[in-house]
């Protein structure tokens, strides 16, 4: 797993931690809002890049889940692997 993906997972964990432990406070509310916005944006990316994920080979559900969590970071990896193939 690449460093940017690890950083992104860490950010998600911090936001989720704030939302779960600081509920009702501004920090907890903002953590939940940001996670919600990211979920909507990444859901749109899944729809936009669905065909690319189908053509990538390998497990389609894994590609779609990776696009949901990492967005364009995973799409760049898919495109790089297709160029190298």
Description:
The chain is mainly α and 85 residues long. It is built from 5 helices and no strands. It is elongated, with a radius of gyration of 15 Å. 12% of the residues are buried.
Oligomeric nature of the chains:
single chain
Distance between the termini: 20 Å
Structural class: mainly alpha
Poorly predicted runs of 5 or more residues: none
Describe the structure concisely for a colleague.
This protein is an all-alpha fold. The chain is built from five helices and no strands.
Describe the secondary-structure layout.
Blueprint: H1 3-21, H2 26-48, H3 50-55, H4 60-70, H5 72-84
Characteristics of this structure?
85 residues; mainly alpha; 5 helices; elongated
């Amino acid at each position: 797993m690449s460093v940017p993906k690890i950083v992104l997972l860490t950010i998600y964990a911090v936001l989720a931690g704030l939302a779960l432990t600081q509920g009702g406070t501004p920090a907890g509310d903002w953590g939940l809002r940001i996670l919600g916005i990211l979920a909507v944006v990444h859901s749109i990316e899944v729809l936009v890049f669905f065909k690319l994920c189908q053509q990538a080979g390998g497990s389609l559900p894994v590609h779609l889940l990776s696009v949901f969590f990492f967005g364009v970071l995973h799409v760049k990896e898919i495109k790089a692997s297709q160029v190298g193939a």
